[in-house]
Design a protein that fits this description.
By secondary structure, the chain is α/β, with parallel strands linked by helices. The chain is built from 19 helices and 20 strands. Strands 1-2-3-4-8-9 form a six-stranded antiparallel beta sheet. α16 links the parallel β16 and β17. α3 packs across α4, α6 runs antiparallel to α14 and α16 packs parallel to α19. It is globular and about 80 Å long. The structure holds fructose -6-phosphate. Fructose -6-phosphate binds next to α8 and α16. The site of fructose -6-phosphate has 16 residues, from α8 and α16.
């Protein structure tokens, strides 16, 4: 990029292909140092001017996060003319001011970050020092990729996995300098920082589409393997459950008197399912809370509280802030996470990794089912260490979990019913999802998938709440998905079947997920999606599959970009 003391840059709003066209039309000169960023604008419209990099004279920066005091900093910069409406551009001008005062890029970065409030990963180059890249992070992710004779900086290892699987974790409030001579990491205060290297255990092929039209569809079909990988190696020689990476003593887990699960979006719905299982198996009271609400309501937590956070990416800012708040109150925190080396597991007391492999599609799918597995494992482990279940009861539940990949595969094999339904319902403007007990979070997750991918109104309700209001929404031909509990939970199941009859009597089109031999459910059904026989608490693992497939297919038929739904980002690294 820097050529004879100048910055060369190209930037375009919208798809990467827009930028590729621009570079093809106006090629960039050869260089060995470059920065770039795909950014979903938080300040200003998504336009060319507001996209990254932001260039100020001899300096260019890219920024991930939100600079909360950008207005004040703009005012401090006085006469400077801004080319964009972004918060990020202030960082470029502040960097310029520092390097023009004679500071090197690292010292300039240190001076700039001291002024910033909020969350940021900043990466900067200086055209007059063309062999150096300097980056800093606070409350926003950054990893270094170490290749052979080359280095990378990215929010996530997926960005450089095609070039190297060796990486270095960066801690909070650290600055990293990349030159031909190597990587140098210091703290914001200027002290040398300890770093940790790690090797990524998946490769480029795992991160590519393998013949599927969308990453999301590929990831839905990977669920049998993701679930079985997440279950691998969880038993010791005596057949007891062991969670190797759970660096938390059984004594400590025996003292816990309350569990609070904190997460966002799909991970929050996994947490809602977990509450039913954990309370049933352990009798420990369990609350589930949206991470974005948690610390603002002054939650009652203390050293006897176990906070469980769930995050696929391990970088969700709301969840991270909740962890920090919980730890300030001296609660112990266990993270359930899919991303090795991410900030959330690093800042937690212990971690249970899900082994779903990279999840690229913005809508979480295998993230969800593997989070459920990790929650079940945690619940059973707590029941084991606290003596709440006999060994054979735990073994029976683990054996059932071991059979889940097969049950999920059955749901995947029956995809055509769901795909046909998506074709039929392409013009639906509203879809409802109903469930009770663990079917309720399944309904919420089914609705979320449809909202985010098909951009239509979709809502999940607890079926018992229908009569308290939502039944007024039922109109002729309104598609209503209903998750019916397994036979054997007859009281619960009878109630759900009555709910289906109620909405059908009001003209709704009922799409019912029930066991194949459930004749009563079949009798009130317009379209039946057959579920394999599994126990009630594990049912979300199979019930969610057709709901994921439906959302993916409906969005495809509507012509939407399934992997990159509008307005959404894969990791939400801002609060
Ligand atoms: C929905 C979805 C989001 C995420 C949420 C939390 O399909 O993907 O709702 O579940 O943003 O993300 P993680 O799990 O990375 O913390």
């Amino acid at each position: 990029m820097p050529v004879e003391g100048a910055i060369e840059w190209r930037k375009r709003a919208g798809k990467i292909s827009n930028l590729e066209e621009e570079i093809a039309a106006r090629p960039l000169p050869p260089t060995s140092v470059a920065i770039g960023h795909t950014r979903w604008a938080t300040h200003g419209a998504p336009t060319d001017q507001n996209s990254h990099p932001h260039v100020a004279g001899r300096v260019a920066i890219v920024h991930n996060g939100i600079i909360e005091n950008h207005d004040q900093l703009r005012a401090e910069l006085g006469e400077v003319e801004f080319a964009s409406e972004t918060d990020s551009e202030v960082a470029a001008h502040l960097m310029l001011r520092e390097v023009e005062s004679g500071k090197g890029l690292v010292d300039a970065m240190r001076a700039v970050v001291a002024k910033l409030e909020g969350a940021f990963t900043l990466v900067a180059v200086d055209a007059q020092d063309p062999d150096r890249i300097v980056a800093a992070r606070r409350n926003s992710p950054l990893v270094v990729g170490v290749g052979s004779n080359e280095y990378f900086l990215a929010s996530d290892v997926a960005a450089f996995i095609a070039y190297t699987r060796d990486a270095i974790e960066l801690g909070q409030d650290q600055i990293v300098e990349l030159t031909r001579d190597g990587v140098n990491v210091t703290t914001f205060d200027g002290a040398p920082a300890e770093t940790k290297s790690f090797h990524v255990d998946w490769d480029l092929e795992a991160a590519q589409k393998q013949g599927f039209d969308w990453y999301m569809r590929k990831e839905i079909f990977e669920q049998p393997k993701a679930v079985s990988d997440t279950l691998l190696g969880r038993l010791n020689d005596k057949g007891e459950l062991q969670l190797d990476e759970l660096r938390m003593s059984p004594e400590l887990l025996r003292r816990v008197n309350k569990i609070v699960i904190v997460a966002c979006g799909t991970a929050f719905y996994a947490g809602l399912v977990a509450k039913y299982a954990i309370e049933h198996w352990t009798r420990i009271p369990c609350e589930v809370e949206l991470a974005s609400e948690f610390r603002y309501r002054d939650p009652i937590i203390d050293p006897m509280t176990l906070v469980v956070t769930i995050s696929q990416s391990g970088e969700t800012a709301d969840t991270l802030m909740a962890i920090r708040h919980a730890r300030e109150q001296h609660a112990k925190v266990i993270a359930i996470c899919n991303t090795n080396g991410a900030t959330i597991p690093r800042e937690s007391d212990a971690v249970i990794y899900t082994h779903a492999g990279p999840e690229i599609g913005v809508a979480s799918t295998k993230g969800f089912t593997t989070q459920l597995v990790a929650c079940y494992l945690l619940g059973l482990y707590l029941a084991q260490v606290r003596g709440m279940k006999y060994g054979d009861e735990i073994a029976a539940l683990l054996a059932e979990l071991e059979r889940m990949p097969e049950a999920i595969q059955k749901m995947l094999d029956a995809k055509s019913t769901v795909y046909d339904l998506a074709e039929e319902l392409v013009d639906a403007t509203s879809v409802l999802f109903l469930g009770r007990h663990v079917g309720y979070p399944s309904a919420l997750e089914g609705a979320l998938k449809l909202k985010e991918l098909a951009y239509i109104h979709a809502e999940g309700f607890a079926a018992g709440e229908l009569k308290h209001g939502p039944i007024a929404l039922i109109s002729q031909d309104l598609p209503v998905f209903v998750v019916v509990p397994p036979k054997g939970r007859d009281q619960l199941r009878d109630k759900v079947i009555s709910n289906i009859a109620e909405v059908r009597a009001r003209g709704a089109r009922t799409i019912v997920l029930a066991e194949a031999d459930d004749e009563e459910a079949r009798a009130v059904t317009d379209t039946l999606i057959e579920l394999p026989k599994v126990s009630t608490l594990l049912q979300p693992m199979v019930a969610i599959i057709p709901l994921q497939l439906f959302a993916c297919e409906l969005a495809t038929v509507k012509g939407h970009d399934v992997d990159q739904p509008r307005n959404l980002a894969k990791s939400v690294t801002v609060e």
